[in-house]
Structure formats: C-alpha cells, structure tokens
Amino acid sequence: MRYLILTIFSLATLFSYSQSNGGFGNSNNWSLNKSEIFFSVGATQFLGDLGGLNREGTQNSIADLDWSSTRYGAGFGYRFRFHPRFATSTQLYAGMLSGNDANTDEIIRRSRNLSFRSIVVELSQRLEYIIYAKEEGGARYNSYGTKGRGTKADIFYVFSGVSGFFFNPQTKINGSWTDLRPLRTEGQGLPNGAEEYKRTSLSIPFGVGFKFAIGKYWRLGIEVSYNKTFTDYIDDVSTVYYDPETLQDKVGGNAVYAANPSIENHTWFTEGQQRGNPEDNDAYMFSNITIIRNITYPKPKGMSRTRWNGRTKF
Q1: 119-130, pLDDT tens digit by residue?
Q2: Spatial separation of the C-alpha atoms in residues 233 and 185, rounded to whole Å
Q3: Among candidate residues 120, 116, 123, the one with its CA nearest the CA of residue 237
Q4: CA dist., res. 225 & res. 160, Å (int)
C-alpha cells in the first residue's frame, strides 16, 4: 500500500500547479459538471496469503502481484461535485478475486498448494479531492457564449472513503467449486479452533483517477484503487492447520482435503503449523475504465445563475 500512497502524493505534487489554471481559474465551470452517473469495467487483483511472485510473500504489497490471477469486475455509481475541489461518489461494484499457490515457484507456498476464488460485491462511499481540472462548457452551453468551442473536462483526482462488501471463498474439489466457509478449514467454531468469520466486512479504499471529455455529455476515465480490508478470510486462510481427525469427524473428507491439499514436503503442513498470516488482513485492487454521463442540467436562457445552480436532469 505504501507504494500506491507514494504514487498518489507524487502525482498530487506534479499537478499542484493547476490551482491557478483551467477550471479553477473560473469558479463557474465546475458547476457545469456537478452530477454524473458512471459505469466501470476492469481488472481485479487479490493481495493476501495465496499466490504471489517466486519469492517469500509480501502480503498486501503490490510488489507481490500475481498477474495470472487477474480477474474481472464491473459496477455503476453516481457522483456529486459539491465544490470546485471536492466530490462524493457512491458505487456498487461486483468482481471476482482469485489466488493460487500453484502460480508461484516459491517452495513453501507452492508445496502448500492452497487456492481459492471469491465473488466480491462492494458498496462504497468515497470522497474525491480534485487536484487538477481543465474545464470548458463547449457548444452545449450556448447561453454562456461558448458556441463553437469543444467541451473540456480534464480532471485528475485522488479519493478515499469506506466500503462494505460481501465475499464467499470457494475452492475446487473433485472438479466442482465448493464453498469453503462451511468446511471450517481452520477449525472455525470447533474445539481449540479459530473463530468463525463472517462473509461481510469493511474496507478502506485509496485510489487515483483521471477523466476527460469525449463529447458534450460523455467522459472517459481511468481509476485504480487499493482496498485495505478488515478481514483476513477472503481466501479462507489466516491462522494454523487444524487437527485433521477432528475435521474428518465433525465436517467430513472435503474439509480435510481443503484444509491441507499440500503436494510435497507434507511435514511442513501439520496440525499447529502456520497456514496463513493473521497479523495482516487481506486487500484487493480494482483497475477500471469508466464511462461517465454528465447529467447536470444546463442553465436555461433567462434564468439567473443563482437560481439554476447546476441542476440535475435524468
């Protein structure tokens, strides 16, 4: 996460000169883009206990991204800009996350041989800080005397907020995807086992985005977000290996296999040995292309700018 934060602050410094340029040179321009709806589609990445590069894991670091586990997601939302520098957005997003120890040549993780996938359905509320803006109304706003000029809406921003999400880790057993939570792979809820985990949690997103006009009403954007969660069980891996005999007796053979599918060096993965890293919660990333529709209603002729104030029309 520190690499992403450094990148955001570096870009913020790079664009800080914009305070006296573009849309910030005219306080009226930003109100032409107050309300937007947007649609996002892109790639997802999981950062947790499973998979990673061919070295000892660096959980939650983008330096350990497993590109072969990239999956996809999509969402939609509403953005309201209430100040030249600030906007708030609400988004519903659904994506698939994945991790697989077979994708790394690091000997411990590869021998451990754990894998998972999980749907993530996330509802987020974000606050955006606009670092750079170059905005012009264009021909749409003829009442402003801009006829003949193209629309500009170049905006660079950073954001954070809070998200609530649902997840459901699964793994393949005998060729079928099987829910992992009911299998209690780390003895969740069993004697001397780990605590049971919920399939809902919160996360804190940190991100950066850029968008520009592709017409009077439409914008195209790019967003990248890093989401730090408050759970370590998106991949169903967190603590230590549980007693396989108790698992067999209380849950069944599928639980025993899902808990320890190691393919070699089996003595490394016995009851009480480390299975995951409970000291650092999971994280995930979204990298999206966004299609944005400006739904701010233009000022009618004859209406004062005070009365209009960037009304919205759906």
Answers
A1: 999 999 999 999
A2: 11
A3: 116
A4: 9
